[in-house]
């Protein structure tokens, strides 16, 4: 095919491309992968702001404010990504404001003015406004400042959850019957937004999806002989990478953008915008934003820390923490990396909290969360390079200093945003479904847990979105807290599945706790399910220079939940944790239990099947 040659698909199933998490690839290849991540990240940022800005109080459109707002978000996301890949979980994860930030922010900004209250029937009524923000009640600036206050609160709560070790503790108790519906609903929760943007031109969106599917699946094993990349270290040269698969998102994205640009230049109408979509479109703006503007805290006013912002910030923190833990699990599985340790999970949440704090101080309406779309892009391209993600983060920081350059992102056709959501979030759905293989899905217990959790996660948000006045407690902040939580499908699925999984009796085999997933130690890799902790330390461990600086601090609170004192201590803690979960003989009926993810006994462990090198890689969780 055009001078290329194809290899057997089986040759590509066991490992990623030459640009993997542990291996250094050439700078040219890393820059191309970084550009691919940047395209997906820019699309998601545009989706977030396009959906949020119309919910703010109506004011004359101000292109400069919109462009600068997008630049500030990009700047904060770049810094948060650097922290995540260097000091956090160390997974190649891009940071963006996720939908778990969007829903509470829309609930807060679309609610009546800051001085509004509700009567007994839940109807909003006006009341006297206290100083000092009465002069700006109902304005867009005040709404943005209040949303920024909620983001600031969420960052503080995420930081506390990570430092205290709560995130790692909870994540260790999530089995297959919690992860499967949660990851599936993370992908399904974006279908409305995807259809909304695809409706601007289904032809453009379908063209993007067709090219992405063709490149990543049908031409996934094809290699072009002229695409040989030299190693970053040494003089050896890597064989030509599977070009179509490695750039299965970047090439369709760039190609469709070029087609749309040509059609626009020829004055051929190709984008149809109804009144609702026309309100979202900002591509007709001609305001000339500044070339250089360094963002700093308080430039647009300090965040408003109102009771409403506090309530919504709590909901943001809970929803985004669940989303991020799911993204850590998803990324680890897609990269076939060793199982994520609680220390890496806690560090990841801490860095996201720091990123949200920065975003809130800069006045952006969204915090920092792991990008599901970029993690799924790694699965499509089979190239998980930490260096490429860090390069993309540095580019984001540079672009964030230039609102004029960031304004170019507003020229991306809206239909491309919908296409990107379709091809990326579909991978999350499939990955979640794949976890069902580790549990007995034919069991009536498991069938009910999965069906009930996922059904309610889709039903409750739709019901509350159609009639939010049905939820009225008499106190506005409490109403906003419940609305912000119950309208996030990830929270509903995670809470219901976790509660039912750990309270409804079931055998260990039925719950999937005798699978290779649970028996595998955190240090184990794909080919060595009971290997030493060194492999996990290479992937998730802190940089060597930082470990040398913090040998003593890791033993003291709160750093004891962020990094182990040594690999030996970490392994000892893991063994003690496993022993503490082994049920004593005679304490429960055989095969039954309602305690949190009990570990199988030694006799049961020997009954578990052992994976072979030709089987599907063992799943990787933060358990």
Characterise this structure.
By secondary structure, this protein is mainly alpha-helical. It has 25 helices and 6 strands. It has helices at 27-52, 63-86, 99-110, 140-163, 166-171, 176-188, 191-198, 202-218, 243-246, 250-265, 275-280, 307-334, 342-362, 372-381, 386-400, 403-406, 414-434, 444-466, 476-486, 489-501, 516-519, 534-540, 544-549, 567-580, 602-607, and strands spanning 5-6, 95-96, 117-118, 124-125, 222-223, 369-370. It has a two-stranded antiparallel sheet with strand order 1-5. Strands 2-6 form a two-stranded antiparallel sheet. Strands 3-4 form a two-stranded antiparallel sheet. Strand 3 (117-118) and strand 4 (124-125) form a beta hairpin. Helix 1 (27-52) packs across helix 15 (386-400), helix 8 (202-218) packs antiparallel against helix 10 and helix 12 runs parallel beside helix 14. The radius of gyration is 24 Å and the shape is globular.
């Amino acid at each position: 095919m055009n001078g290329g040659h194809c290899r057997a698909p089986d040759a590509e199933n066991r490992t990623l491309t030459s640009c993997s998490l542990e291996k250094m690839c050439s700078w040219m290849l890393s820059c191309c992968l970084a550009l691919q991540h940047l395209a997906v990240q820019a699309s998601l940022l545009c989706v977030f702001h396009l959906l949020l800005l119309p919910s703010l109080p109506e004011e004359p459109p101000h292109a400069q404010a919109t462009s600068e707002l997008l630049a500030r978000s990009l700047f904060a996301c770049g810094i948060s990504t650097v922290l995540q890949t260097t000091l956090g979980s160390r997974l190649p994860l891009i940071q963006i404001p996720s939908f778990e930030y969007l829903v509470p922010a829309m609930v807060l900004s679309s609610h009546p003015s800051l001085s509004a209250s509700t009567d007994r029937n839940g109807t909003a009524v006006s009341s006297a406004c206290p100083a000092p923000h009465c002069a700006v009640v109902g304005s867009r600036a005040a709404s943005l400042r209040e949303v920024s206050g909620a983001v600031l609160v969420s960052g503080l709560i995420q930081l506390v959850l990570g430092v205290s070790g709560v995130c790692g503790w909870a994540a260790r108790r999530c089995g297959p019957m919690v992860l499967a519906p949660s990851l599936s609903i993370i992908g399904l929760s974006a279908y409305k937004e995807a259809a909304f943007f695809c409706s601007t031109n289904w032809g453009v969106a379908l063209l993007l999806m067709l090219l992405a599917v063709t490149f990543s699946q049908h031409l996934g094993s094809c290699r072009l002989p002229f695409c040989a990349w030299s190693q970053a270290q040494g003089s050896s040269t890597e064989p030509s990478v599977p070009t179509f698969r490695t750039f299965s998102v970047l090439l369709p994205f760039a190609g469709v953008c070029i087609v749309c640009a040509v059609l626009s230049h020829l004055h051929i109408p190709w984008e149809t915008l109804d009144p609702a979509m026309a309100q979202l479109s900002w591509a007709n703006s001609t305001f000339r934003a500044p070339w250089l503007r360094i963002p700093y805290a308080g430039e647009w006013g300090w965040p408003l820390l109102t009771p409403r912002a506090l309530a919504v910030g709590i909901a943001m923190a809970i929803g985004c923490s669940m989303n991020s833990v799911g993204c850590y699990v998803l990324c680890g599985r897609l990269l076939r990396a060793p199982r994520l340790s609680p220390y890496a999970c806690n560090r990841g949440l801490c860095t996201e909290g720091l990123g949200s704090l920065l975003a809130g101080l800069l006045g952006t309406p969204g915090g920092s969360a792991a990008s599901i779309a970029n993690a799924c892009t790694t699965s499509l391209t089979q190239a998980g390079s930490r260096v490429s993600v860090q390069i993309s983060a540095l580019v984001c920081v540079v672009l964030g200093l230039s609102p004029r350059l960031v304004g170019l992102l507003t020229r991306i056709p809206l239909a491309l945003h919908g296409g990107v959501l379709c091809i990326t979030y579909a991978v999350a759905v499939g990955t979640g479904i794949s976890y069902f293989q580790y549990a007995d899905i034919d069991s009536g217990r498991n069938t009910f847990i999965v069906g009930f959790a996922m059904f309610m996660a889709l039903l409750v948000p739709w019901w509350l979105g159609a009639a939010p006045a049905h939820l009225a407690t008499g106190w506005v902040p409490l109403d906003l807290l419940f609305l912000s939580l119950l309208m996030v499908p990830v929270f509903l699925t995670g809470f219901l599945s976790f509660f039912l999984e750990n309270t409804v009796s079931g055998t260990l085999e039925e719950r999937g706790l005798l699978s290779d997933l649970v028996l595998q130690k955190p240090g184990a890799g794909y080919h060595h399910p009971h290997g030493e902790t060194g492999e996990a330390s290479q992937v998730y461990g802190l940089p060597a220079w930082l470990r040398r600086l913090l040998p003593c601090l890791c033993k003291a609170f709160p750093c004891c939940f962020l990094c182990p004192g040594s690999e030996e201590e970490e392994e000892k803690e893991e063994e003690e944790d496993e022993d503490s979960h082994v049920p004593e003989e005679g304490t429960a009926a055989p095969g039954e239990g309602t305690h949190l993810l009990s570990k199988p006994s030694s006799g049961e462990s020997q009954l578990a099947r052992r994976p072979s090198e030709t089987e599907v890689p063992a799943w990787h969780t933060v358990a």
